[in-house]
Automatic annotation (TrEMBL):
Protein name per UniProt: NAD-dependent epimerase/dehydratase domain-containing protein
Phylogenetic placement of the source organism: Eukaryota, Fungi, Dikarya, Ascomycota, Pezizomycotina
Family: Belongs to the NAD(P)-dependent epimerase/dehydratase family. Dihydroflavonol-4-reductase subfamily.
InterPro entries: Epimerase_deHydtase (IPR001509), NAD(P)-bd_dom_sf (IPR036291), NAD(P)_dehydrat-like (IPR050425)
Residues annotated as transmembrane: none
Coiled-coil regions, chain positions: none
PANTHER family: ALDEHYDE REDUCTASE II (AFU_ORTHOLOGUE AFUA_1G11360), NAD DEPENDENT EPIMERASE/DEHYDRATASE
Length: 333
């Protein structure tokens, strides 16, 4: 059997993004150790917050792609979601520090760690230099009306801060590269299709809900700059393969040319699925987005030119992302 480029640990490997990350590493001739909370996965890490939880999982690996984090927008347990994200990130870094084989570590953060939802973010482009400084205040003000999205936002801010704080506190001791990838709204075709479409990722499910004539609010989830799940996987692979370029860097994944809203989903799907045009609500055709999916002047824009320049590659277009997902969802209808 031909040798591979090395062994990579992927946490959260059974998730929407995780499965595509595993696929990307396998296609690039790496061996993969998949870790998740699902008992059907090859490597089980029962509680990512336990001390030493990842010690066995990191043994002998060349690289780590840490994706595991609670992503359930219906979960409003503040302490659990935030605690799991932070403790899981610090815990796996501690395990990596003890494993001499580790050469690179990629943490999947989020655009919500970069920017918030307030008016100060509108009409300007955010870059990797920005941080979401409003998330915790917004969460505190929400009281009993807190939402899963607000908790998730704080968890990603705190976890990424902990990631970089760990690097600073252990400067001179860490022997591996450290990179954060911050995706915008992730859509596209899942690699693993659940039997029940309600088990689709909270971000990937938007296209399915619209195809299924479900009520999707015109504002909220599904509105803003998108990135294809396959591009997120590509960026994580890039960071591992180019550690001299990626070490100590954040990369926003997804940028201009993929700005869309729920109406854009509707218009695109009605055009390409005329047989379901009566099922897919018409809404207000063309409203709220530009024909080329570029970012409106007053939008919360993102500047992902850093990633595009580093990789020499742009982003999968929004229409391909959604239509490839729709093709995968045809089995449900």
């Amino acid at each position: 059997m031909a040798s591979t480029r090395g062994l990579v640990l992927v946490t959260g490997a059974n998730g929407f993004i995780g499965a595509r990350v595993v696929e990307a590493f396998l296609a690039a001739n790496y061996s993969v150790r998949a870790a998740s909370g699902a008992k059907t996965q090859p490597t089980l890490v029962p509680d990512i917050t336990s001390p030493g939880a990842f010690d066995n999982a990191v043994h002998g690996v060349k690289a780590i792609a840490h994706l595991a984090t609670p992503v359930d927008f219906s979960n409003t347990n503040v302490d659990y979601v935030i605690g799991s994200a932070v403790q899981g990130t610090v815990g796996i870094l501690q395990s990596a520090m003890k494993e001499p084989s580790v050469e690179s570590f990629v943490y999947m953060s989020s655009i919500v760690a970069v920017r918030g939802r307030g008016s100060q973010w509108e009409g300007r482009g955010v870059t990797e230099k920005d941080w979401n400084t409003e998330a915790e205040e917004t969460l505190a003000k929400s009281g009993s009306n807190v939402t899963g999205h607000q908790i998730y936002g704080v968890s990603k801010v705190k976890a990424e801060r902990a990631f970089w704080d760990f690097r600073e506190k252990n400067a001179g001791k860490i022997k591996f590269s450290m990179t954060a990838v911050n995706p915008v709204w992730v859509a596209g075709p899942p690699l693993i299709m659940p039997e029940d479409p309600e088990k689709l990722s909270d971000t990937a499910i938007i296209a399915y809900r619209i195809m299924n004539s479900e009520d999707v609010p015109p504002v909220g989830p599904g509105n803003g700059t998108h990135v294809d799940v396959r591009d997120v996987a590509r960026m994580i692979l890039f960071a591992v393969q180019n550690k001299q370029v990626a070490d100590g860097e954040r990369f926003i994944a997804g940028g201009n040319g993929n700005f869309a809203n729920v109406q854009a989903y509707r218009d695109l799907l009605r055009k390409h699925y005329p047989g379901r045009s009566d099922i897919i609500g018409e809404g207000e055709p063309g409203k709220g987005y530009l024909p080329d999916y570029s970012e409106p002047a007053d939008a919360r824009r993102v500047d992902a030119s850093k990633a595009a320049k580093a990789t020499g590659q742009g982003w999968i277009p929004f229409d391909k992302t959604i239509l490839d997902a729709a093709k995968a969802y045809e089995r449900y209808f």
